Amino acid sequence: MKKEIVPIIQRTYDKDKYRDLLRRPFAHRGVHNEYPENSLPAFEKAVELNLGIELDIHITTDGKLVVFHDDNLRRMVGVNEYIKLLTYEQVKGYTMGDTEYHIPLLTDVLQLVKGKVPILIEIKTNNDMKRLVPALKQVLENYKGKVFIQSFNPFVLRRCYKAMPNILRGQLSSFFVHDHLRFYKKIPIKKLFFKNFSHADFVSYNLENLPNKYVNKMDIPILAWTVKTEDDYIKAKQNANNMIVDNVDVLK
What does the pLDDT look like over 112-156, one tens digit per residue? Predict the structure, then answer.
């Protein structure tokens, strides 16, 4: 049976392949206007609002995948410790800010969501991928819901393609204006040179840098990050196929 090809924003995509990726916006680190980002109640609120969930993962020294954005615990926890140097038992001992909420395991989030909404996992790039990717594969093997993976590092995406070819992968990108990347790393990712090498199925591009000639040449869906205002929402609707939303009130 021939699959329907739908033209959107000067691109075409396979409607069946991308249905769950594009059906609804993704809540950036959950809905965290009342709760800490990347916390279980923030994800529970996203499920309640029928939004997809975007989250970040790191791996601890004892091989546990924890859901947290920063490499260091300082901003969210107030402790100058790096996740990659801690065991899960150590990480579990902290709470986020002045709340009672602990940093969750990825398995905790999967058990909470239970396939009700899709999950977009960003793999933070300063982790040991020789351990993280197999650990992620093992965690996702028996999960029945829709999951997508994204990363700034095309080598990480290529590793995920080889380990989990059935999970769609997204190349995160930006103009990296405020990032301290070396130019030889910045330019190829900015210009999406690694799309074929990484087997990227979609692109997640910084909304501040949309539209641009690099995404206009893509024949795969574009997600815009991160939508915070009503103007951002309008811009994302005009220039992308879906969006990652920091302020879910703009969706109303």
Answer: 999 999 999 999 999 999 999 999 999 999 999 999 999 999 999
The number of angstroms, rounded, from the C-alpha of 252 to the middle of its chain's C-alpha atoms is: 23
Which of 28, 32, 58, 102 is labelled catalytic? 28
Token reading at 23: 């059906």
Number of Cβ within 10 Å of residue 114's Cβ equals 11
CA proximity to 172, closest of 195, 193, 192, 152: 152
Neighbouring C-alpha atoms within 13 Å toward the C-beta of 146: 17
Q: What is the pLDDT of residues 29-76, one digit of tens each?
A: 999 999 999 999 999 999 999 999 999 999 999 999 999 999 999 999
H or E, element range at 150: strand 147-151
Of the candidates 32, 69, 178, 199, the residue annotated as catalytic is 69
Parent domain of 14: 1-18+123-247
Q: What's the number of domains the chain is made of? A: 1
Report, as an integer, the average pLDDT of 69-84. 98
Report yes or no on 215 lying in a domain. Answer: yes
In a domain, 62, yes or no: no
Question: Is-catalytic flag, 178?
Answer: no
Q: What is the DSSP string of 5-64?
A: EEEETTEEEEHHHHHHHHSSPEEETS--SSS-TT-HHHHHHHHHTT-EEEEEEEE-TTS-
Do the Cβ atoms of 147 and 118 come closer than 8 Å?
yes
CATH number, domain containing residue 127: 3.20.20.190
Please check whether residue 77 is in contact with residue 94, taking contact to mean a CB–CB distance below 8 angstroms.
yes
pTM of the model: 0.95
Q: How many residues appear in the chain?
A: 252
Q: Identify whether 199 is a catalytic site residue.
A: no
